[in-house]
Design goal:
Helix content is 35%, strand content 22%. The chain has 13 helices and 13 strands. A hairpin with a 2-residue loop joins strand 11 and strand 12.
Length: 367
Protein backbone atom coordinates (compact mmCIF):
# COMPACT_ATOMS: atom_id res chain seq x y z
CA UNK A 1 0.00 0.00 0.00
CA UNK A 2 2.88 2.39 0.73
CA UNK A 3 4.20 1.93 -2.82
CA UNK A 4 0.75 2.37 -4.36
CA UNK A 5 0.10 5.59 -2.43
CA UNK A 6 3.73 6.67 -2.64
CA UNK A 7 3.67 7.89 0.95
CA UNK A 8 6.84 9.57 2.18
CA UNK A 9 8.81 7.34 4.51
CA UNK A 10 8.58 7.85 8.25
CA UNK A 11 11.09 10.38 9.54
CA UNK A 12 11.51 12.12 6.19
CA UNK A 13 9.37 15.11 7.21
CA UNK A 14 8.78 17.16 10.35
CA UNK A 15 5.18 15.98 10.63
CA UNK A 16 3.36 12.80 9.72
CA UNK A 17 0.13 14.76 9.22
CA UNK A 18 -0.98 18.38 9.10
CA UNK A 19 -4.71 19.05 9.51
CA UNK A 20 -6.32 22.25 8.26
CA UNK A 21 -9.56 23.27 9.94
CA UNK A 22 -11.42 24.98 12.76
CA UNK A 23 -10.99 24.04 16.41
CA UNK A 24 -13.99 24.96 18.54
CA UNK A 25 -14.66 24.89 22.25
CA UNK A 26 -17.18 22.11 22.86
CA UNK A 27 -19.58 22.56 25.78
CA UNK A 28 -21.20 19.31 26.86
CA UNK A 29 -24.18 19.22 29.28
CA UNK A 30 -23.49 15.58 30.19
CA UNK A 31 -26.72 13.75 30.98
CA UNK A 32 -28.75 16.98 30.78
CA UNK A 33 -30.16 18.95 27.83
CA UNK A 34 -28.51 22.08 26.49
CA UNK A 35 -31.55 24.20 27.33
CA UNK A 36 -31.81 22.94 30.94
CA UNK A 37 -28.15 22.47 31.92
CA UNK A 38 -26.39 24.65 34.47
CA UNK A 39 -22.98 23.00 34.20
CA UNK A 40 -21.06 22.19 31.00
CA UNK A 41 -17.92 20.13 30.45
CA UNK A 42 -15.40 21.90 28.20
CA UNK A 43 -13.30 20.14 25.58
CA UNK A 44 -11.91 20.95 22.15
CA UNK A 45 -13.00 19.54 18.83
CA UNK A 46 -13.34 20.02 15.11
CA UNK A 47 -13.71 17.62 12.21
CA UNK A 48 -10.25 18.12 10.75
CA UNK A 49 -8.45 18.65 14.07
CA UNK A 50 -9.92 15.46 15.55
CA UNK A 51 -8.03 13.45 12.93
CA UNK A 52 -4.68 15.02 13.83
CA UNK A 53 -5.33 14.51 17.52
CA UNK A 54 -6.25 10.85 17.05
CA UNK A 55 -3.10 10.23 15.04
CA UNK A 56 -1.05 11.84 17.80
CA UNK A 57 -2.65 10.51 20.97
CA UNK A 58 -3.70 7.02 19.91
CA UNK A 59 -1.15 6.18 17.23
CA UNK A 60 1.87 8.18 18.37
CA UNK A 61 2.48 10.10 15.14
CA UNK A 62 3.75 13.68 14.86
CA UNK A 63 0.92 15.97 13.85
CA UNK A 64 0.13 19.68 13.57
CA UNK A 65 -3.01 21.75 13.12
CA UNK A 66 -3.25 24.80 10.86
CA UNK A 67 -5.98 27.00 12.30
CA UNK A 68 -6.64 30.47 13.72
CA UNK A 69 -7.92 31.60 17.11
CA UNK A 70 -8.93 34.92 18.62
CA UNK A 71 -6.40 35.89 21.28
CA UNK A 72 -8.59 36.02 24.36
CA UNK A 73 -9.17 33.74 27.38
CA UNK A 74 -11.50 31.45 25.40
CA UNK A 75 -8.88 31.04 22.70
CA UNK A 76 -6.24 30.33 25.33
CA UNK A 77 -8.54 27.70 26.86
CA UNK A 78 -8.74 26.00 23.46
CA UNK A 79 -4.94 26.26 23.27
CA UNK A 80 -4.58 24.61 26.68
CA UNK A 81 -6.89 21.77 25.66
CA UNK A 82 -4.95 21.26 22.43
CA UNK A 83 -1.70 21.15 24.39
CA UNK A 84 -3.12 18.18 26.30
CA UNK A 85 -3.88 16.56 22.94
CA UNK A 86 -0.24 16.83 21.91
CA UNK A 87 -0.87 18.33 18.46
CA UNK A 88 1.86 20.77 17.36
CA UNK A 89 0.56 24.36 17.41
CA UNK A 90 3.31 26.03 15.41
CA UNK A 91 0.81 26.60 12.58
CA UNK A 92 -1.84 28.23 14.82
CA UNK A 93 -2.39 31.89 13.90
CA UNK A 94 -3.48 34.20 16.72
CA UNK A 95 -5.78 37.07 15.71
CA UNK A 96 -6.17 40.24 17.85
CA UNK A 97 -9.43 40.31 19.80
CA UNK A 98 -11.59 43.43 19.54
CA UNK A 99 -12.95 43.06 23.06
CA UNK A 100 -16.50 42.18 22.00
CA UNK A 101 -16.31 39.71 19.14
CA UNK A 102 -17.78 41.97 16.47
CA UNK A 103 -14.94 41.24 14.08
CA UNK A 104 -13.22 38.12 15.37
CA UNK A 105 -14.10 35.44 17.90
CA UNK A 106 -13.73 31.75 18.73
CA UNK A 107 -16.29 29.12 17.82
CA UNK A 108 -18.47 27.40 20.42
CA UNK A 109 -20.18 24.05 19.94
CA UNK A 110 -22.89 22.93 22.37
CA UNK A 111 -23.51 19.19 22.00
CA UNK A 112 -26.02 16.82 23.60
CA UNK A 113 -25.07 13.16 23.46
CA UNK A 114 -28.56 11.74 22.95
CA UNK A 115 -29.96 8.60 24.52
CA UNK A 116 -32.40 5.93 23.35
CA UNK A 117 -35.10 7.52 21.19
CA UNK A 118 -33.66 11.02 21.79
CA UNK A 119 -31.10 11.79 19.09
CA UNK A 120 -27.85 13.65 19.69
CA UNK A 121 -28.17 17.41 19.18
CA UNK A 122 -25.61 20.03 18.23
CA UNK A 123 -25.96 23.81 18.45
CA UNK A 124 -22.96 25.67 17.09
CA UNK A 125 -22.13 29.35 17.61
CA UNK A 126 -19.37 30.02 15.10
CA UNK A 127 -20.08 33.25 13.21
CA UNK A 128 -17.14 35.64 12.55
CA UNK A 129 -14.59 33.15 13.89
CA UNK A 130 -10.89 33.76 13.40
CA UNK A 131 -10.43 30.68 11.25
CA UNK A 132 -13.30 31.63 8.92
CA UNK A 133 -11.35 34.78 8.07
CA UNK A 134 -8.24 32.96 6.86
CA UNK A 135 -7.44 34.05 3.34
CA UNK A 136 -4.97 33.50 0.55
CA UNK A 137 -1.43 34.27 1.65
CA UNK A 138 -1.96 33.73 5.38
CA UNK A 139 0.13 30.56 5.16
CA UNK A 140 3.28 29.93 3.15
CA UNK A 141 2.19 26.46 2.07
CA UNK A 142 5.19 25.71 -0.19
CA UNK A 143 7.47 26.26 2.83
CA UNK A 144 5.24 24.24 5.16
CA UNK A 145 5.26 21.23 2.84
CA UNK A 146 8.76 21.84 1.49
CA UNK A 147 12.13 20.46 2.53
CA UNK A 148 12.54 22.82 5.50
CA UNK A 149 9.54 21.41 7.36
CA UNK A 150 7.40 18.98 5.39
CA UNK A 151 4.54 16.62 6.13
CA UNK A 152 3.78 13.12 4.92
CA UNK A 153 0.04 13.82 4.86
CA UNK A 154 -2.44 16.73 4.67
CA UNK A 155 -5.99 16.30 5.94
CA UNK A 156 -8.78 18.83 5.54
CA UNK A 157 -12.47 18.74 4.69
CA UNK A 158 -15.76 20.20 3.67
CA UNK A 159 -16.44 21.78 7.05
CA UNK A 160 -13.39 24.04 6.73
CA UNK A 161 -14.15 24.76 3.07
CA UNK A 162 -17.69 25.85 4.01
CA UNK A 163 -16.71 28.38 6.68
CA UNK A 164 -16.42 31.30 4.26
CA UNK A 165 -15.74 32.35 0.68
CA UNK A 166 -12.02 32.52 1.52
CA UNK A 167 -11.46 29.24 3.37
CA UNK A 168 -12.27 27.22 0.27
CA UNK A 169 -9.42 29.06 -1.48
CA UNK A 170 -7.08 28.39 1.44
CA UNK A 171 -7.92 24.68 1.25
CA UNK A 172 -7.19 24.61 -2.50
CA UNK A 173 -3.84 26.36 -2.01
CA UNK A 174 -2.83 23.95 0.74
CA UNK A 175 -3.77 20.95 -1.41
CA UNK A 176 -1.85 22.25 -4.43
CA UNK A 177 1.28 22.85 -2.36
CA UNK A 178 1.01 19.46 -0.68
CA UNK A 179 0.63 17.64 -3.99
CA UNK A 180 3.59 19.54 -5.46
CA UNK A 181 5.69 18.37 -2.51
CA UNK A 182 4.63 14.73 -2.85
CA UNK A 183 2.42 14.84 0.26
CA UNK A 184 -0.70 12.67 0.35
CA UNK A 185 -3.97 14.61 0.60
CA UNK A 186 -7.14 13.38 2.29
CA UNK A 187 -10.49 15.14 2.42
CA UNK A 188 -13.65 14.43 4.38
CA UNK A 189 -16.71 15.77 2.55
CA UNK A 190 -18.65 16.25 5.82
CA UNK A 191 -21.53 18.04 4.09
CA UNK A 192 -23.39 20.36 6.46
CA UNK A 193 -26.35 22.15 4.88
CA UNK A 194 -26.37 24.79 7.63
CA UNK A 195 -22.79 25.85 6.86
CA UNK A 196 -23.33 26.28 3.13
CA UNK A 197 -26.68 28.07 3.41
CA UNK A 198 -25.26 31.59 3.68
CA UNK A 199 -22.64 31.24 0.92
CA UNK A 200 -24.63 29.71 -1.93
CA UNK A 201 -26.28 26.59 -0.55
CA UNK A 202 -26.04 23.14 -2.08
CA UNK A 203 -25.12 24.52 -5.53
CA UNK A 204 -22.05 26.24 -4.07
CA UNK A 205 -21.18 23.14 -2.05
CA UNK A 206 -21.27 21.08 -5.23
CA UNK A 207 -19.16 23.58 -7.15
CA UNK A 208 -16.49 23.85 -4.46
CA UNK A 209 -16.31 20.21 -3.42
CA UNK A 210 -16.20 18.86 -6.97
CA UNK A 211 -13.21 21.09 -7.65
CA UNK A 212 -11.42 20.26 -4.40
CA UNK A 213 -11.97 16.50 -4.73
CA UNK A 214 -9.93 16.58 -7.94
CA UNK A 215 -6.92 17.47 -5.76
CA UNK A 216 -7.42 14.56 -3.35
CA UNK A 217 -5.81 11.12 -2.94
CA UNK A 218 -7.98 9.67 -0.15
CA UNK A 219 -11.65 10.67 0.13
CA UNK A 220 -13.92 10.14 3.14
CA UNK A 221 -17.70 10.52 3.06
CA UNK A 222 -21.00 8.74 3.38
CA UNK A 223 -23.88 8.10 1.03
CA UNK A 224 -25.46 11.47 1.78
CA UNK A 225 -22.18 13.32 1.15
CA UNK A 226 -21.53 11.53 -2.14
CA UNK A 227 -25.07 12.18 -3.33
CA UNK A 228 -25.50 15.77 -2.14
CA UNK A 229 -22.22 17.27 -3.30
CA UNK A 230 -20.73 14.87 -5.84
CA UNK A 231 -23.94 13.76 -7.55
CA UNK A 232 -23.31 10.01 -7.23
CA UNK A 233 -26.46 8.46 -5.83
CA UNK A 234 -26.97 5.05 -4.27
CA UNK A 235 -30.12 3.20 -5.22
CA UNK A 236 -32.03 0.79 -3.03
CA UNK A 237 -31.06 2.28 0.33
CA UNK A 238 -32.87 0.63 3.21
CA UNK A 239 -33.14 1.68 6.84
CA UNK A 240 -32.79 -1.95 7.88
CA UNK A 241 -29.38 -3.23 8.95
CA UNK A 242 -30.23 -6.71 7.61
CA UNK A 243 -31.13 -5.32 4.18
CA UNK A 244 -28.20 -2.93 3.82
CA UNK A 245 -27.40 -2.90 0.07
CA UNK A 246 -23.64 -3.46 0.09
CA UNK A 247 -23.71 -4.08 -3.66
CA UNK A 248 -25.16 -0.58 -4.10
CA UNK A 249 -22.38 0.90 -1.97
CA UNK A 250 -19.81 -0.90 -4.12
CA UNK A 251 -21.41 0.45 -7.29
CA UNK A 252 -21.42 3.97 -5.84
CA UNK A 253 -17.72 3.83 -4.93
CA UNK A 254 -16.79 2.50 -8.35
CA UNK A 255 -18.74 5.31 -10.02
CA UNK A 256 -16.91 7.84 -7.84
CA UNK A 257 -13.56 6.35 -8.78
CA UNK A 258 -14.49 6.58 -12.45
CA UNK A 259 -15.64 10.19 -12.12
CA UNK A 260 -12.53 11.18 -10.13
CA UNK A 261 -9.63 9.03 -11.37
CA UNK A 262 -7.21 10.90 -9.07
CA UNK A 263 -8.78 9.18 -6.04
CA UNK A 264 -6.66 6.28 -4.84
CA UNK A 265 -8.82 5.35 -1.84
CA UNK A 266 -12.50 6.12 -1.18
CA UNK A 267 -13.83 5.19 2.25
CA UNK A 268 -17.24 5.35 3.89
CA UNK A 269 -18.45 4.42 7.35
CA UNK A 270 -21.61 2.32 7.50
CA UNK A 271 -23.99 3.19 10.30
CA UNK A 272 -27.49 2.09 11.18
CA UNK A 273 -28.90 3.92 14.20
CA UNK A 274 -31.16 1.51 16.07
CA UNK A 275 -31.27 4.22 18.75
CA UNK A 276 -29.00 7.04 19.89
CA UNK A 277 -27.26 4.61 22.22
CA UNK A 278 -27.13 1.52 19.97
CA UNK A 279 -25.75 1.70 16.44
CA UNK A 280 -24.64 -0.88 13.92
CA UNK A 281 -21.18 0.24 12.80
CA UNK A 282 -18.89 -0.83 9.96
CA UNK A 283 -17.19 0.51 6.84
CA UNK A 284 -16.51 -0.01 3.16
CA UNK A 285 -13.62 1.25 1.02
CA UNK A 286 -12.43 1.18 -2.59
CA UNK A 287 -8.88 0.93 -3.89
CA UNK A 288 -7.48 0.01 -7.32
CA UNK A 289 -10.64 -1.73 -8.45
CA UNK A 290 -11.06 -3.72 -5.24
CA UNK A 291 -13.52 -3.38 -2.37
CA UNK A 292 -12.90 -3.92 1.33
CA UNK A 293 -16.02 -4.35 3.45
CA UNK A 294 -16.06 -4.55 7.25
CA UNK A 295 -19.62 -5.70 8.08
CA UNK A 296 -21.63 -3.73 10.59
CA UNK A 297 -21.92 -4.98 14.13
CA UNK A 298 -23.84 -3.46 17.00
CA UNK A 299 -21.88 -1.07 19.23
CA UNK A 300 -23.14 0.78 22.28
CA UNK A 301 -22.75 4.54 22.01
CA UNK A 302 -22.00 7.06 24.74
CA UNK A 303 -21.21 9.98 22.41
CA UNK A 304 -21.35 9.52 18.65
CA UNK A 305 -19.70 12.83 17.70
CA UNK A 306 -16.22 12.28 16.31
CA UNK A 307 -16.70 8.62 15.43
CA UNK A 308 -16.21 9.31 11.73
CA UNK A 309 -13.10 11.42 12.42
CA UNK A 310 -11.61 8.61 14.49
CA UNK A 311 -12.40 6.18 11.66
CA UNK A 312 -10.46 8.49 9.33
CA UNK A 313 -7.45 8.75 11.65
CA UNK A 314 -7.33 4.98 12.10
CA UNK A 315 -7.44 4.38 8.37
CA UNK A 316 -4.82 7.08 7.71
CA UNK A 317 -2.58 5.52 10.36
CA UNK A 318 -2.82 2.19 8.59
CA UNK A 319 -1.84 3.72 5.25
CA UNK A 320 1.02 5.72 6.79
CA UNK A 321 2.24 2.53 8.48
CA UNK A 322 2.30 0.71 5.15
CA UNK A 323 -0.53 -1.70 5.97
CA UNK A 324 -2.91 -3.04 3.33
CA UNK A 325 -6.33 -1.46 2.92
CA UNK A 326 -8.19 -4.20 4.77
CA UNK A 327 -6.04 -3.70 7.87
CA UNK A 328 -6.39 0.08 7.61
CA UNK A 329 -10.20 -0.06 7.33
CA UNK A 330 -10.46 -2.45 10.27
CA UNK A 331 -8.22 -0.12 12.28
CA UNK A 332 -10.49 2.80 11.43
CA UNK A 333 -13.64 0.90 12.39
CA UNK A 334 -12.15 -0.17 15.73
CA UNK A 335 -10.84 3.29 16.54
CA UNK A 336 -14.16 4.92 15.64
CA UNK A 337 -16.09 2.45 17.80
CA UNK A 338 -13.82 3.12 20.78
CA UNK A 339 -14.06 6.88 20.32
CA UNK A 340 -17.83 6.70 20.65
CA UNK A 341 -17.57 5.07 24.10
CA UNK A 342 -16.21 8.25 25.72
CA UNK A 343 -17.50 11.85 25.92
CA UNK A 344 -16.20 14.56 23.61
CA UNK A 345 -15.21 14.80 19.95
CA UNK A 346 -11.79 13.26 20.37
CA UNK A 347 -10.50 9.75 20.94
CA UNK A 348 -9.03 8.63 24.27
CA UNK A 349 -8.24 5.13 22.98
CA UNK A 350 -4.79 3.56 22.98
CA UNK A 351 -3.23 1.60 20.15
CA UNK A 352 -3.35 -1.52 22.33
CA UNK A 353 -7.12 -1.09 22.74
CA UNK A 354 -7.57 -0.60 18.99
CA UNK A 355 -5.60 -3.75 18.23
CA UNK A 356 -7.61 -5.70 20.80
CA UNK A 357 -10.91 -4.63 19.22
CA UNK A 358 -9.56 -5.40 15.76
CA UNK A 359 -8.73 -8.87 17.00
CA UNK A 360 -12.24 -9.42 18.34
CA UNK A 361 -11.28 -8.95 21.97
CA UNK A 362 -14.10 -8.87 24.51
CA UNK A 363 -14.76 -6.08 27.00
CA UNK A 364 -13.46 -7.98 30.01
CA UNK A 365 -11.77 -5.90 32.67
CA UNK A 366 -8.03 -5.35 32.20
CA UNK A 367 -6.01 -5.43 35.42
Amino acid sequence: MTEILNVKVAGSARWDCVSLGEVMLRLDPGDDRIHTARVFRASEGGGEYNVARGLRRCFGLRTAVATALADNPVGRLVEDLMLQGGVDQDLVLWKPYDGVGRKVRNGLNFTERGYGVRAALGCSDRGNTAVAQLTSGDYDWPSIFGAEMGSRWLHTGGIFAALSDTTMTVAAEAMDAARAAGTMVSYDLNYRESLWKAIGGKAKAQEVNRELVRKVDVLFGNEEDFSAVLGVKMEGVSESFDELPIASYEKMLRELAQAYPNLKVIASTLRTAHSASLNAWGAIAYHAGGIVHVPQRDVEILDRVGGGDSFASGLIYGLLAGKDLEWAVKCGVAHGALAMTTPGDTSTASLAEVLRVMGGGAARISR
